[in-house]
């Protein structure tokens, strides 16, 4: 499936949650949608799921507007960080509703995951802990088999071991049957290896869209004497530089090998740190 985002702005009264954002996503792929609080991630996901309209510009899924579009709504499954289900419903009723709604629903997978997460079909949503409710969201998202599955921080209340289990299940599902998964998270380093492409939003603007491979392999942190680092980074795309006691560290797009040949100390940059530097750079620009 193809998602085209064209000059999208979303305004809430005086607040601009998205500012003239344009990009294209093509599935099947696992996309990481990153950004700090209030960057506009949830707003974008809500527009994509057809829950709200952009103030201007358009989002198209295979050429169609998702707002109030019944055909598309059965192809897109959005799981948010909470309040996905009516509190009075039982788990088995939630499962029945989603099974009815999503044509590719995988009942066997849903039952297997309910068992793994130890969720009782008779239990009412309002009796579940935060972690159990998140687990149900994860189960529904995975079992929906929706060609566009969107997870917006879906793991609130799950501990590190349960989150790891979820990432494993998600990857297995993706390998079994490829689809487009858009995943928004704060816990970037936990999941960064899963992403094939990363988008970073900052204050409503898209500051980066890049394949994760390029980010991992073609960015590095170079440290050495100020004059050596300055000479090395001349003409290169520098993300950030820091100076202390005659030494400099520069974060840049460039090959590690080239820096090593110059006798500089070179390290990879964890995605989390890269995101912080990229968003700070744009803020200062
Ligand atoms: N319903 C709303 N009414 C008014 N303002 C809103 C609404 N939803 C979002 N906003 C504002 O739009 C901006 C973007 O919010 P959004 O929730 O999309 O960001 P986010 O990147 O998902 O953040 P977080 O990670 O904290 O959920 C914020 O300034 C937020 O206050």
From TrEMBL:
<keyword id="KW-0547">Nucleotide-binding</keyword>
<dbReference type="Pfam" id="PF00005">
    <property type="entry name" value="ABC_tran"/>
</dbReference>
<dbReference type="InterPro" id="IPR027417">
    <property type="entry name" value="P-loop_NTPase"/>
</dbReference>
<feature type="domain" description="ABC transporter">
    <location>
        <begin position="3"/>
        <end position="228"/>
    </location>
</feature>
<dbReference type="InterPro" id="IPR003439">
    <property type="entry name" value="ABC_transporter-like_ATP-bd"/>
</dbReference>
<protein>
    <submittedName>
        <fullName>ABC transporter ATP-binding protein</fullName>
    </submittedName>
</protein>
<dbReference type="InterPro" id="IPR003593">
    <property type="entry name" value="AAA+_ATPase"/>
</dbReference>
<keyword id="KW-0067">ATP-binding</keyword>
<dbReference type="GO" id="GO:0016887">
    <property type="term" value="F:ATP hydrolysis activity"/>
</dbReference>
<dbReference type="GO" id="GO:0005524">
    <property type="term" value="F:ATP binding"/>
</dbReference>
């Amino acid at each position: 499936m193809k998602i085209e985002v064209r000059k999208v702005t979303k305004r809430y009264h005086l607040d601009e949650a998205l500012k003239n954002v344009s990009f294209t996503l093509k599935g099947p792929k696992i996309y990481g949608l990153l950004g700090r609080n209030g960057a506009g991630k949830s707003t974008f996901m809500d527009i994509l799921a057809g829950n709200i309209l952009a103030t201007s510009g358009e989002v198209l899924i295979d050429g169609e507007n998702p707002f109030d579009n019944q055909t598309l709504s059965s192809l897109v499954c959005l799981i948010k960080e909470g309040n996905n289900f009516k509190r009075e419903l039982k788990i088995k009723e939630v499962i029945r509703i989603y099974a009815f709604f999503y044509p590719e629903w995988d009942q066997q997978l849903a039952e297997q995951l309910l068992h793994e997460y130890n969720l009782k079909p008779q239990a009412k949503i309002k009796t579940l802990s935060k972690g159990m409710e998140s687990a149900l969201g994860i189960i529904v998202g995975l079992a929906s088999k929706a060609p566009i599955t969107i997870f917006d921080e879906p793991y609130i209340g799950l501990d590190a071991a349960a989150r790891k289990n979820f990432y494993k299940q998600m990857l297995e599902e993706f390998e079994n049957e490829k689809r487009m998964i858009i995943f928004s998270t704060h816990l970037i380093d936990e999941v960064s290896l899963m992403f094939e492409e990363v988008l970073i939003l900052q204050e409503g603007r898209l500051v980066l869209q890049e394949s994760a491979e390029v980010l991992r392999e073609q960015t590095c942190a170079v440290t050495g004497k100020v004059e050596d680092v300055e000479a090395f980074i001349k003409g290169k795309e520098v993300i950030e530089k820091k100076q202390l006691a005659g030494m400099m560290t520069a974060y840049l797009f460039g090959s590690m090998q080239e820096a090593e040949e110059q006798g500089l100390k070179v390290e990879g940059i964890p995605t989390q740190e890269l995101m912080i530097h990229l968003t700070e750079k744009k803020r200062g620009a």
